[in-house]
Specification:
By secondary structure, chain A is of the alpha/beta class. Chain A is built from 11 helices and 14 strands. Chain A has 2 domains: about 180 residues, Rossmann fold, CATH 3.40.50; about 130 residues, 3-Layer(aba) Sandwich (Rossmann fold), CATH 3.40.50.920. Helix content of chain B is about 25%, strand content about 20%. Chain B starts with 9 loop residues before the first strand and ends in a 7-residue tail after the last helix.
């Protein structure tokens, strides 16, 4: 089997699930005839028709609302946000309506909201966001954010089959930059399980999405230059968080660096830090450090974007600081 | 226990361990300082809290007007133990609130101290002036209130104290593993290192850290433990060298060498053990003739079958584990006023090394056969000499055997390996002439293989009769060792 990109892996997952289950359908802006802004859904309408691949008006609230209704009635909708930045336009219906539906009315809402996320692509403030932390705070939602092509496919298929609403963040920087051979058969990645992207003994990096690759680069560099053995944990799922994997790596290396591309204040790293403090304080040999984006809107300017977003060199600096503490 | 936040002018005493460590916490600035007794937390090891002792008996040693030094003048004492508690600050006792000998609950204010600083403030009668700078007067008390939080009711402050400015941030001594906050800052470690230190009985202050500004890192403490230096736990506050004898000076031609880490640790542990346990030593002579015969008979076959050398020691260990089963107090630890009876019988075997001494531990020795004990013993001894022991293999012992007899010593008075309560010494096993009853009822002189056993025990929890019964049991077990015990 040949290698396919992260983007193709998502597309393959969509095809497979639509083929497998007649209740699965897609809706979003320009996903049908145009094939989506990034061509993730290309070919989908030709194969499954307008009834199952629906071009919608430009209203995130309408897309999510329609999907929620269909999900209550037994369908399994997959919504596309043209850019995940626009998910905030659907914030109310997601948090107030969808996330509470099962609790309020015992209404299962098996739906997926997916969309291109993240920066490093000179996209500026409206096309580069990582809004996961805003939703991490809402009980009733699930959040996944794959870093590899096989997880992109496996998590999408698991998300579609999940009986609750799953926010599926896909990193546009990774779309065509990474390739992987897909595992054979009906490949599912479990929701709620982190992955050890690299084994190590001196310092742990806990991260997800595109920064997994930056972390791996940094780990390689400090291994060569400093002889440090760095473990990299790819969370894959942010909600529910894999506490077991987090605590295991803390107990193994006792030094933790959390890296994410999202801004710093109120970010996922703060939540992970708190969990480690509560459960494994006595296993820490150094303070937990964070490498994140600066607390500013993401600039268009390439040098400024590079400055604001976490880079491999930032991670290397933090690793060295942590290791020498 | 959450660390109590206090209003200015107050001091608390917390984590008063029996005979092992005393720590004061608190912060103050106003002059009058209260003394609180806090929850009893402590044990001989200084690591595990002992619950169930909610109140302590205290009295104030010094009277009103007594001048206290800055560091260690006793102002309070635990009734049974007369544990001295360092004064948190130089000053004068202004008020003693509880009556001498009175039993009070933890967290009770028992006395107030007047510090020099406070006295000076009182004279000034311009408390706000001594505050930081020009903060609005109305704002500061609010801040103080928010930092003291829910503890305010538990620790009421006098009106006079309230009017004074909030305390400068003299941090409370957050006591943990027996180190004060200041100690911990000074020793620069992490939660993990402190945890390891408590588990392995290592005094962090004695280590050289390789981290930032001399921090002791995980790697530092683990390599220290792996060096084998730490087999017992030092007693907090009972450090070697506490005596104030003048240091001997080197004479011309003398060689001065710093102690190795292992030597420094042994030094500390030996003194700490002597200071902790009430050592008593008793001696028995054990007849090994029968075991010698069994050993001679089975030796070739045993060694061919197992590939292990068969010495006397496995027989001794076997007899000791049976003795520990019969006398569980011998296999215990003292934790404050509790006795911990150990379920596991982990027998430490002192192994002499060219560079010191190490005590690898045969875990659950009571579950092992004679050949199992032999294998474990030979393996640990060989790896001890090759510096290949893992830290776990020198920890968790519940009873120790030392064998000075290999060097010809007839008997010794070994020092207990803390936190254990007994150690057995084995003297040289040699042929001696003994008077035995002969076949015709007459006394006769016979040649027997014998050794002197000594048992040093902690008289705090083991009385002489029990220790002697234990050793008599061991003696009998060895002298009647079954022919088929392999």
């Amino acid at each position: 089997m040949s290698e396919i990109t992260y983007l193709e892996a998502i597309r393959e997952g969509l095809f497979e699930e639509m083929e497998r289950d007649k209740n699965v359908f897609c809706l979003g802006e320009d996903i049908g005839a145009y094939g989506g802004a990034f061509k993730v859904t290309e070919g989908l309408m030709a194969k499954y028709g307008e009834q199952r691949v629906i071009d919608t008006p430009i209203s995130e609230t309408a897309i999510i609302g329609a999907a929620a209704g269909a999900a209550h009635m037994g369908m399994r909708p997959v919504c596309e946000m043209q850019f995940i930045d626009f998910l905030s336009s659907g914030y109310s219906i997601l948090t107030n309506y969808v996330a509470t539906a099962r609790y309020r009315a015992m209404l299962p809402t098996p739906m997926v909201v997916r969309g291109p996320s993240g920066g490093y692509v000179r996209g500026g403030p409206f096309h580069s966001q990582n809004p996961e932390a805003a939703f991490l705070h809402t009980p009733g939602l699930k959040i996944v954010y794959p870093a590899t092509a096989s997880d992109a496919k496996g998590l999408l298929k698991s998300a579609i089959r999940d009986d609750d609403c799953v926010l599926y963040f896909e990193h546009k920087y990774l779309y065509r930059r990474i390739k992987e051979e897909m595992p054979s058969g009906d490949h599912l990645t479990p929701i709620g399980k982190a992955r050890i992207a690299r084994e190590g003994t001196d310092v742990s990096i806990i991260t997800y999405a595109a920064t997994v690759w930056k972390a791996l680069e940094a780990a390689e560099q400090v291994e060569k230059e400093d002889g440090l053995s760095v473990e990299v944990v790819d969370l894959r799922t942010l909600l529910p968080m894999d506490d077991e994997a987090i605590i295991a790596t803390v107990k193994k290396t006792n030094r933790v660096l959390i890296v994410h591309e999202d801004t710093r204040t109120g970010g996922v790293a703060g939540e992970i830090t708190a969990r480690i403090n509560e459960s494994a304080f006595e296993w820490l040999d150094a303070p937990i450090l964070r490498v994140t984006a600066a607390d500013v809107p993401l600039p268009y300017s390439p040098p400024l974007e590079d400055y604001v977003l976490p880079q491999t060199s930032d991670i290397v600096v933090a690793l060295r600081k942590l290791a020498s503490y | 226990m959450a660390s109590p936040k206090l209003d200015r002018g107050e001091i608390i005493a917390r984590n008063i361990g029996v005979g092992c460590f005393t720590t004061f916490g608190g912060f103050f600035s106003g002059g009058m300082v209260a003394v609180l007794i806090a929850k009893f937390v402590g044990s001989v090891q200084g690591c595990k809290p002992v619950e169930g002792l909610p109140a302590c008996n205290w009295w104030v040693y010094a009277g009103v007007g007594a001048v206290l030094g800055a560091v260690t003048l006793p102002i309070l004492a635990l009734s049974r133990l007369n544990a001295e508690i360092p004064s948190p600050a130089a000053g004068v006792i202004a008020e003693i609130i509880v009556k001498e000998g009175e039993t009070v609950a933890v967290q009770t204010v028992v006395a107030r101290l007047e510090t020099e600083k406070g006295a000076a403030l009182g004279k000034n009668d311009a408390p706000a002036a001594s505050g930081t700078t020009s903060s609005p007067a109305g704002k500061q008390p609010e801040k103080a209130a928010s930092t003291s939080g829910p503890q305010r009711e538990a620790t009421p402050v006098s009106g006079a104290a309230r009017q004074q400015p909030p305390a400068p941030a003299i941090a409370a001594s957050h006591t943990g593993n027996g180190n004060s906050f200041e100690d911990r800052v000074r020793t620069k470690s992490s939660p993990l290192v402190r945890k390891i230190a408590a588990e392995h009985g290592v005094n962090i202050a004695s280590l050289q850290g390789s981290g930032v500004a001399g921090r002791v890192t995980k790697r530092d403490i683990l390599s220290f433990i792996e060096s084998g230096a730490s087999t017992t736990s030092p007693i907090q506050g009972g450090r070697a060298g506490g005596h104030a004898l003048p240091l001997p000076q080197p004479w011309p031609g003398d060689v001065v060498e710093p102690m190795s880490k292992m030597r420094a640790l042994i030094s500390e542990h030996m003194v700490a053990s002597r200071q902790t346990s009430a050592h008593v030593t008793s001696f028995f002579e054990v007849d090994f003739t029968r075991v010698a015969r069994i050993r001679a008979k089975n030796r070739a076959e045993f060694e061919a079958a197992t590939g292990q050398k068969l010495t006397y020691m496995p027989f001794i260990i076997k007899a000791v584990t049976q003795g520990l089963q019969a006398f569980p107090i011998m296999n215990s630890s003292v934790a404050g006023t509790n006795v911990i009876y150990r379920k596991q019988m982990n027998i430490g075997i002192a192994v002499a090394l060219d560079w010191g001494l190490i005590v690898p531990v045969i875990r659950n020795a009571n579950d092992l056969s004679l050949s199992g004990i032999t294998r474990a013993l030979n393996d640990l001894a060989a790896r001890a000499r090759a510096k290949k022991l893992s830290p776990e293999e020198v920890q968790g012992g519940t009873f120790t055997i030392t064998n000075p007899g290999v060097f010809g010593s007839l008997m010794g008075t070994p020092i207990i390996n803390q936190p254990q309560v007994a150690i057995m010494g084995v003297g040289a096993i040699e042929k001696r002439t003994k008077v035995l009853p002969g076949a015709d009822g007459e006394d006769t002189i016979a040649i027997r293989t014998c050794a002197y056993f000594s048992i040093s025990f902690d008289h705090r929890v083991i009385d002489g009769a029990v220790a002697d019964q234990f050793l008599a049991f061991v003696k009998k077990t060895i002298e009647t060792f079954p022919e088929t015990g392999f």
